[in-house]
Recover the amino acids of this structure.
């Protein structure tokens, strides 16, 4: 018992320098540069532009997509890009949230910044060949932006999600067939 | 017999403990950071190559609508040829002149591409051509990937160079890893002229 009393006294004497050291260490370690919202669910509506009914419908579709294909598609709206361009912001948010399975890198982030009037689809490396840059642009230009311009954020996001899911879940050969039929311009040989 | 084996055991134990201590004190850190930086450089080169691969198709498409813009098209073709010739091997990353040579060639290509895109704005049929639009978004996507790869490389090099110069890395750097030199960084990034961004 004597030994116990001594050791606890010793413990108290030497703890506080370490506490100060730890506190100083915490002060000087770099905090993340941007204030990202928490990944609270498949739809993170920080900017509060999605109607509740639409939101739950979208969440269900995203859950179904992950169950069927393993692809983790997340919709996020942010009230501010904090002075960043949307491309680096989306890339850092995607990495911060660690979307997708690590081995397959199959995450997709649909990011809307209504106050900066920007939309971006950020895609993990594993899904790049399916949801290409060209297709992302087509989806944004055709499905999302026109609806946003008329103030219909819920509709634009919902339709965008539908189109993304269509691209991700349609068989690749079917897409190539559609593209071949639709293409009217002949491309000269690549040299 | 028993006494000899005890001493032997103690010696073996000492060697093992020293090994753990050495590993714990960061012997592995320098090689690990070096490999990470080299891997990030690989990503940078891959993405620049990806951009170079898009260009023949882009040039052909623009030529289909704007053949008379011969000067701009030639500039792009020549800049691309020059840029693809200069490759920086992972072992050459400690040579700032070589890295700068690579960067300058790529910047020239960025400039030529920017001019080509700008010129294409004057041709409404080209601007609305589906193939051109697809190529344009591929180009944008690749430029973005290049930017990300550059950032990752710069960070990896920063960590490696810092490890070489600060405690405890500096101890290893001046003894076992005397041959390791700091890696070259990029100078300020020169953005290619960005095509008009889609806003709503």
């Amino acid at each position: 018992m004597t030994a116990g009393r001594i050791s606890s006294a010793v413990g108290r004497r030497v703890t506080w320098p370490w506490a100060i050291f730890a506190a100083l260490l915490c002060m000087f370690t770099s905090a993340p540069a941007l204030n990202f919202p928490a990944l609270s669910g498949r739809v993170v509506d920080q900017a509060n532009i999605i109607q509740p009914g639409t939101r739950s419908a979208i969440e269900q579709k995203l859950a179904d997509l992950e169950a069927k294909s393993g692809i983790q598609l997340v919709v996020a709206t942010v009230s501010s890009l904090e002075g960043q361009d949307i491309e680096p912001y989306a890339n850092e948010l995607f990495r911060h949230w660690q979307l997708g399975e690590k081995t397959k890198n199959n995450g997709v982030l649909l990011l809307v910044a209504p106050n900066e009037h920007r939309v971006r689809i950020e895609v993990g490396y594993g899904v790049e060949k399916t949801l290409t840059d060209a297709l992302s642009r087509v989806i944004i230009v055709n499905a999302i932006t026109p609806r946003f311009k008329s103030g219909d954020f819920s509709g634009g996001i919902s339709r965008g999600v539908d189109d993304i899911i269509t691209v991700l879940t349609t068989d690749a050969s079917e897409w190539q067939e559609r593209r071949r039929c639709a293409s009217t311009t002949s491309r000269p040989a690549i040299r | 017999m028993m006494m000899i084996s005890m001493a032997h055991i103690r010696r073996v134990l000492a060697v093992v403990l020293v090994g753990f201590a050495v590993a714990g004190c960061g012997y592995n850190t320098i090689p690990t950071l070096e490999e990470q930086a080299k891997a990030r450089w690989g990503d940078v080169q891959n993405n620049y190559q990806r951009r170079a691969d898009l260009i023949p198709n882009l040039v052909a498409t623009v030529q289909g609508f704007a053949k008379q813009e011969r000067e701009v098209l030639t500039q792009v073709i020549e800049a691309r040829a020059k840029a693809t010739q200069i490759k920086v091997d992972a072992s050459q990353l400690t040579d700032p002149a070589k890295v700068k040579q690579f960067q300058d060639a790529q910047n020239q290509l960025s400039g030529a591409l920017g001019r080509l895109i700008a010129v294409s704005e004057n041709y409404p049929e080209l601007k609305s051509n589906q193939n051109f639009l697809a190529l344009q978004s591929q180009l944008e996507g690749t430029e973005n990937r290049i930017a990300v790869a550059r950032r990752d490389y710069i960070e990896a090099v920063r960590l490696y160079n810092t490890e070489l110069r600060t405690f405890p890395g500096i101890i290893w750097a001046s003894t076992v890893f005397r041959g390791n030199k700091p890696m070259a960084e990029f100078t300020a990034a020169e953005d290619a002229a960005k095509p008009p961004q889609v806003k709503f």
Remarks:
- The longest strand of chain A covers residues 107-113.
